Amino acid sequence: MNLTTALARLLIFPGLLFAVPAAWFFLWVERKAVARMQGRIGPPFMQPLFDFFKLLGKTTPTRTGVGGLLMRAWPLIAVSAAAGAVGLLPVLPSSGGFEGDLILLLALLELPSMCIIAAGFSSRSIFGEIGSAREAVLSVSYNVVFLLAIVSIAASQHTFRLEALAQLPPSFLRYLGVAAILVCLPAKLHLNPFSLPNAEQEIYSGPMVEYAGPELAMWELSHGLEWVAATGLVATLIAPPMTLWWLGAALFVALSFAIVLLLSVLAAATARLQIDTTVRFYWQCTLIFAVLAISSALFMRLRS
Amino acid sequence: MKLWNRWMCICRRRSPWLFHMNSGSCNGCDIELVASLTPRYDAEQLGVRLEGSPRHADILCITGPVTRNSVHAIETVYGQVCGPKAVVAIGSCPATTNVFIDSRTLDGPLDRHIPVDVFVPGCPPRPDAIIQGIAKAAEILAERGTNPPPPEPVPEADPDSEEEEL
């Protein structure tokens, strides 16, 4: 992969030029699906775009000192990390050079959630701090399962390179891992059964409470990009390898859309759980499956 | 530049985010405001979202006849909403203090403290009326965002009131 194709992947597909409209589209699908589940008509198609530009046109409160500087920086870091994660997804086959690395992708996927935690604490609002604490607890809970699932997939296929993982024929173990990742996605995307950090009613949307205007627009965008990256990761893991590149791209978009729909319907159908219930769910119920997956992966590896 | 302004005007008109504040209301108008977001009325079709934080909001929806205790809170929250912003007074109470007129625990009506753009009268007003009021406020907001805003009438609070609170 030479520099031009690398730049094209980062900037056009599946990078920024694809990811930003896809982020807005997925945010719309989420709101629309919830509205349809509640028997409403829901927001118009362009709604996330209107929201984004409206927020860009608003003023922000004056922020001073290092705290203010940090508060401005967090949303930008989150957006660039999420955009980088989307750009790394191995949708199109490449030839040699830098190929997407699973560990880098995981780090980039984790960075927005770290930024949210830091943003809540640097806003110095009591609600922001509660939201950040919840996000931290949640992240410790679901990440164990999430990482174990991904490690089990990688271990069963003997590689940490995303490109190679996406090209290998899928196995039963990979589907087990994908199921574990899917269980973690609602928590990663702050969706309803696990939407604790950004609970509107209890803690005034948590870490975002002090953000306004363009900064809030960047948070919305980073949330949308996280949608694209997280669903895209699952889509690349379950999509069978395609010979035609445009068929692969179309399948990637269709699978991402299906996962967004699934998660939104789940979000509309459930109510928010308490933090201790959530932690118990991840540590007691799902951890067993993740441990099973990784132990069977290691066992398979020892046998082969 | 002109095109950009028109685009921003459309965006502001089509995405009004609300912050709901109760200034001693009997809860009647509050229920009606929530009812306007329910499936029957579905204000989200207009892009309306009820936000948890005043920092996120464009339109401040205030119910209630403004009790003495809530005056400072109203001024604080009005200051926390980032511009361009609009205020909708929901119900007869913030407009005229309604049946509580001449009560010594009140410091209303609302427009003595902050500039109000739209009054939605009624006790309580129907959700349709509230949605119409919000749509009107969104238009005012869009206009205000595009044209240079008029000098904001300073609320009558004394400037060192915040220090008193601290």
Short account of what is shown:
The complex is a heterodimer of chains A (304) and B (166). Chain A is an all-alpha fold.
**Count of DSSP E strands of chain B?**
5
Average of pLDDT of chain B:
86
Radius of gyration of chain A: 19 Å
Task: Report helical residue fraction of chain B.
Answer: 25-40%
Principal-axes shape call of chain B: globular
Order of SSEs of chain B: HEHEEHEHEHH
Distance between the termini of chain A: 32 Å
The spatial strand order of the largest sheet of chain B comes to 2-1-3-4-5
Elements of chain A, N to C (H/E)? HHHHHHHHHHHH
Q: Indicate the structural class of chain A.
A: mainly alpha
Largest interface: A-B, 34 and 25 residues
Q: How many domain regions of chain A?
A: 1
How many extended strands of chain A? Answer: 0
Structure description:
The complex is a heterodimer of chains A (304) and B (166). By secondary structure, chain A is mainly alpha-helical. Chain A has one domain (3-303). Chain A is 74% helix and 0% strand. Chain A is built from 12 helices and no strands. Chain A is globular, with a radius of gyration of 19 Å. With 166 residues, chain B is of the alpha/beta class. Chain B has one domain (16-139): Rossmann fold (3-Layer(aba) Sandwich). Chain B has 6 helices and 5 strands. A 5-stranded parallel β-sheet of chain B has the order 2-1-3-4-5. The longest helix of chain B is centred in the C-terminal third of the chain and has 20 residues, at 127-146. The radius of gyration of chain B is 16 Å and the shape is globular. Mean pLDDT of chain B is 86; it is low at 161-166. The A-B interface holds A 31, 35, 38-44, 46-47, 49-51, 53-54, 57-61, 127, 200-201, 203-205, 208-213, 216 and B 7-8, 10-12, 14-15, 17, 39, 42, 44-45, 47, 50-53, 55-56, 58, 80, 82-84, 145.
Summary tags:
heterodimer, A: 304 residues, mainly alpha, 74% helix, globular, B: 166 residues, alpha/beta, Rossmann fold, five-stranded parallel sheet, 6 helices, disordered C terminus
